[in-house]
Specification:
Oligomer: single chain
Mean pLDDT: 93
CATH class of the largest domain: Alpha Beta
CATH architecture of the largest domain: Alpha-Beta Barrel
Shape: globular
Number of domains: 3
Length: about 450
């Protein structure tokens, strides 16, 4: 549990030396409590006090990092049960499994396809985060050979899933610098697996079938010096998994139960694609840090990554596009100009309809602070003055010669005032984006 300013003050030297830049130790302790200062700013703090303060300031769910260079994945570090309480910061990492029993050509093709999986949604580029290498053969030689192929053909972070500590140790010698996740230690191999993983300073996943056993293994792994853990509660049925993940999150946040204060990894192995989507979506919402999928089909992955994007988009910070003049087709001085707000969902609803019309056009996007058309109008973020200022800023009069601009039908009330402040002829477009193709073909002249 985080300490108050007075609790922190009791652990400080109380010399009021001002070396930290604060006038007193009490003032410095208040800054620490508000996270506006760091312990490193106090040169005289004792090691005992430092250890106590660092332990108390550790987040209830540890932040774990995988990968290296430009391919670093972060998971954990969350502080709330529900997104509306604050926000969720580190989205669930999605991995796709690759088994070491696959023939070479099939194995390489699967890796290549994982690297190429890509979706574009509301302006965001979405890919698969990790590759999970599964030691299905139980052969160390096959596992290491498969790992070599992954390291040679992909830069994605790796999950090494093998029950054999010796195989794990040899695998980590090949790729510890890439910060893989070692999966998984169990009651049968915990000491040996910790001994294999600890020297390489990579995270270790521990696996158990019950929360009681998982709690025990986490205690033991901590006693063996493992600081970075992931928790695998296994999968019996969706109801039990939902309960387990919720209990792990509640205990770590509400009771500050350190053995459960780590990200959770879940494997989705259902061969029914619809059930696989349901299970993965439940785990993303409640509260997996990593999910491992077997399927690479678009109709499985797209709803899953969409669910993740929706859950981990901060509702207080809408996804936006850059306010500017966008071109569709090959517009010229006679092409229509439409206007909308910079809310991504609005932009990516309007854009396909303009393209579908088959007519070249301009779309003027104003800065509405990420609000939709009606919301921005109600909040006075989409006003005649703002639209007119945007038109002048980009010198729209030099782009087209007709001085006509089309506003969304839902804000037809803006037309008169916009004509007054801009001097342009304002046309009222359709209320719904689906009406744009018909409008441009039949109404625009």
């Amino acid at each position: 549990m985080a300490l108050s300013g007075l609790d922190i003050y009791k652990l400080l030297p109380k010399t009021n030396c001002k070396k930290c830049g604060s006038p007193t130790c009490l003032a410095f302790s208040m800054k620490l409590a508000m996270k506006k200062a760091t312990l490193d700013e106090c040169p005289d703090i004792s090691q005992e006090a430092r250890k106590a303060l660092e332990e108390s300031s550790r987040p209830p769910i540890a932040l774990i990092k995988f990968g290296s260079g430009e391919n670093i994945i972060e998971t954990g570090g969350e502080t709330v049960l529900f997104r509306h309480e604050k926000t969720f910061y580190h989205q669930t990492a999605i991995a796709i499994s690759v088994e070491d029993t696959l023939a070479d050509a099939e194995f390489l093709a699967r890796i290549k396809k994982i690297d190429q999986i890509s979706f574009e949604r509301v302006g965001q580029h979405i890919t698969i985060d990790m590759i999970a290498l599964v030691n299905k053969s139980l052969s160390g030689e096959k596992f290491l050979s498969a790992l070599d192929k992954i390291l040679s053909n992909s830069n994605k972070p790796v999950i090494l899933s093998t029950p054999d500590p010796k195989t794990m140790e040899m695998a980590l010698k090949k790729c510890a610098d890439k910060r893989p996740l070692a999966h998984a230690a169990s009651s049968a191999n915990l000491k040996e697996m910790c001994a294999a993983v600890k020297p390489h300073k990579v995270p270790l996943a521990i696996k158990a079938d019950t929360l009681e056993e998982l709690d025990k293994l986490s205690h033991e792994a901590g006693a063996l010096g493992m600081q970075e853990l992931a928790l695998d509660p296994g999968f019996e049925n969706l109801h039990k998994s939902l309960n387990d993940l919720t209990q792990i999150r509640r205990l770590s946040l509400k009771r500050n139960w350190r053995p459960f204060g780590f990200p959770v990894i879940m494997f989705v192995k259902n061969t029914d694609k619809y059930q696989a989507v349901i299970e993965a979506s439940v785990f993303i919402a409640k509260y997996a840090g990593i999910i491992v999928l077997d399927s690479m089909e678009d109709d499985v992955l797209l709803p899953i990554v969409t669910m993740r994007q929706n859950i981990y988009t901060d509702p207080q910070k809408p996804v936006t596009v850059e306010p500017k003049l966008y071109k569709f087709g090959s517009p010229d001085k006679n092409s229509p100009v439409m206007v909308t707000t910079n809310f991504s969902l609005t932009f990516y609803t309007v854009s396909p309809e303009i393209e579908a019309s088959g007519q070249s056009a301009y779309l003027l996007v104003t800065d509405s602070e990420g609000m939709s058309v009606l919301t921005a109008w109600a909040a006075e973020k989409f006003t005649p003055e703002i639209i007119s200022d945007t038109m002048k800023k980009i010198e729209l009069e030099n782009v087209v010669s007709h001085k006509k601009i089309i506003i969304p039908g839902y804000v037809a009330v803006l037309s008169g005032k916009l004509e007054d402040v801009s001097g342009w002829n304002v046309l009222v477009g359709p209320k719904e984006a689906t009406g744009i193709p018909k409008y441009l073909k039949e109404v625009w002249k």
